Every structure is written in structure tokens, then in C-alpha cells.
Amino acid sequence: MGVLHLNKASFDQLVAQTEKPVLIDFWATWCGPCQKLTPELEKLAEEHPELIVGKVNVEDAENVQIAAGLGVNAIPALFFYRNGKLEKQLVGFMTKDQLAAQLGL
């Protein structure tokens, strides 16, 4: 499926769905670790079609509200949802394999 770029409406809709697990990355263009994480997320999405991977750019004014509501205070911040519920929060760069292990994929 690839990585989805989300806004407030698509974020809410994606998290509410319960069919597939969802991994959301909060990022910014000025963040070096965020830039390194993007290809790892793309590989993870490619290797795990059962996982939906989305990205929320915290530089967009609309998306700042999402991040603030979730208490994001460092990026990259990864939020993993399963069955519509937040299951795990991770912060910082990780390789595809480290992410898969952390998420139990």
C-alpha cells in the first residue's frame, strides 16, 4: 500500500478503522532522524501489507493539533494502533527490523 500522508480527517478515519494495525509517524522536514526513518517505514509497509503506515507532518498547522492532543513532544514519534486502540508509542529513529520487532510483526 505504501505510506499515506495524513491530515486531521484522514488521521481520525484511519485510527478508527479496526481491520488492520496502523503505525503513524509524526515528523517534520527539518528533522534529520525523521528523514532517515522515511525509507525504513516505506520498506516496512512494503514487507508487511497487513500494516497501514501513515505520516503526519507536524509543520502543518492543522496537524499540530493532532500531535498536541497525543502529547507528542519529540519527533520522530511513532504511534501504533491495533483494533482502534493505541497499543505502543516509540520515539526516535529505528531500522525497519527494529520497528518490526518492537511492533511484533
Q: Can you put this structure into words, describing what you see?
A:
The two termini are 16 Å apart. It is globular and about 30 Å long. It contains 4 helices and 5 strands. Helix content is 41%, strand content 27%. The protein has one domain (3-93): Glutaredoxin (3-Layer(aba) Sandwich), CATH 3.40.30. Helix 2 (32-47) crosses helix 4. Helix 2 (32-47) links the parallel strand 2 (22-27) and strand 3. It has 105 residues and is α/β, with parallel strands linked by helices. It has helices at 8-16, 32-47, 61-70, 96-103; strands spanning 3-5, 22-27, 52-57, 77-82, 85-91. A 5-stranded mixed β-sheet has the order 1-3-2-4-5, with helices on both faces.
Task: Give a short overview.
By secondary structure, the chain is an alpha/beta fold. It contains four helices and five strands. It starts with a strand and ends with a helix.
What order do the helices and strands come in, and which of them pair?
Blueprint: E1 3-5, H1 8-16, E2 22-27, H2 32-47, E3 52-57, H3 61-70, E4 77-82, E5 85-91, H4 96-103
Parallel strand pairs: 1-3, 2-3
Antiparallel strand pairs: 2-4, 4-5
